[in-house]
Amino acid sequence: MNRRIRNRTYGGVGGRRARALLLPDLYDKIYRGDILDHAYRLAKANGGIAGVDGVTFEQIESEGREGWLSGIREQLHGKTYKPQPLLRVTIPKPGGGKRPLGIPTIRDRVIQTAAKLVIEPIFEADLEPNTYVYRPKRSAIDAISEVHRLLKEGYADVADADLSKYFDTIPHPALMQCVARRISDRDVLRLIKQWLKAPRSNDENGKDQMSGGRKGQCGTPQGGVISPLLANLYMNRFLKHWRQQGCEDAFKAQVVAYADDFVILSRGWASQALEWTTLSLPLDSPFNLLVFTQPIGEGRCYGTRSQPGFSRIRAAGQDNGNPRP
Predict the structure, then answer these.
(1) In angstroms, rounded to a whole number, what is the distance separating the alpha carbons of residues 278 and 307?
(2) How far is CA 137 from CA 124, 140, 253, 310, in A?
(3) Which of 180, 142, 172, 185 is nearest to 29 (CA)?
(4) Angle between helices 2-10 and 33-46 (to 10 degrees)
């Protein structure tokens, strides 16, 4: 279904040709009937709780899905659509603590899914090959397999970094620059800005409180359909910069990125590669990537040295590529 929609939307344009395109006319594709219908089915299959309006999929279908989708089309076509506040919830992290999520309403999830169906192929053609999360036909297993392959090839000096609060601190101006490099349609850019600026509803002590909104200058909340794609676009700045600066040859190193984590695997130069990364990507640079704050790699890493702004870890491997126990 996705491929058929893509072909009808772009006329088969993709791959290398997509990298050279700056696409101006995309907004009308988002509220096309077949795309909205497919977006609804994907959102329903993904499940999830209701947003701040309390509307559920069961309620939508009992009242008439076609009429509900028709209302969305009218809002988008008339440019009267405005996203509702996000429902703020927290879920436990595997390593302890809690992760905040911003849950859009079902209406906003369907529209974000429709937008993602239209714009994701454009950006997918431009993403570096060494990032593995939130991409079609890629998974954490693929990232692990690539790391294992590199270890077996002798890239056994490893620096592993976790970007602190990555989703919450991505700067909006720089992120919108990433989007505007491929999309010039002002209505699509306006949609994305609206989602970035959506306020969050916080239910604390039985009282509703709003945070974020138009004054917010950073963050793409986890929980939104469009957020993973936007986070990948921003991470791509670093990966592209790494490649263009010749770091692979300079440090005899490869990078494998997954969400807000990335691993530098080197043949003896991981420490220098990570130091170059922290020096060349300061917080005020156009390629800023936040700070490294959390130590990674329990058990199989040694020689941890904490320094201001990040934790440096060097891991060793045997000649056969297996990590040292």
Answers:
(1) 11
(2) 11, 11, 25, 32
(3) 185
(4) 150
Apex 119 CA angle, 115 and 124, nearest 5? 140
Indicate the pTM of the whole model: 0.80
Tell me the CA distances in angstroms from 28 to 102, 120, 186, one per residue in order. 27, 16, 12
| Closest C-alpha to 256, from 235, 271, 272 | 235
In this prediction, residue 90 carries a pLDDT of 86
Interatomic CA distance for residues 122 and 55, integer angstroms:
32
Nearest to 315 by CA among 128, 166, 150, 142: 150
Give tens-digit pLDDT for 184-203. 999 999 999 999 999 887 65
Q: Does the pLDDT value for residue 145 go beyond 70? A: yes
263 three-state secondary structure? strand
Q: CA 172 → CA 54, 79, 80, 81, distances in Å?
A: 29, 22, 23, 21
Burial of 72-109, coded b for 16+ CB within 10 Å and e otherwise, reads beeebeeeebebbbbbbeeeeeeeeeeebbbbbbbbbb
What is the full DSSP assignment across 121-170? HHHHTTS-TTB-SSSTT--HHHHHHHHHHHHHTT--EEEEEEBTTHHHH-
pLDDT, position 182? 92
Residue 173: strand, helix, or coil: helix
Quote helix, strand, coil % in the chain, to nearest 5: 45, 20, 35
Counting every residue, how long is the chain?
325
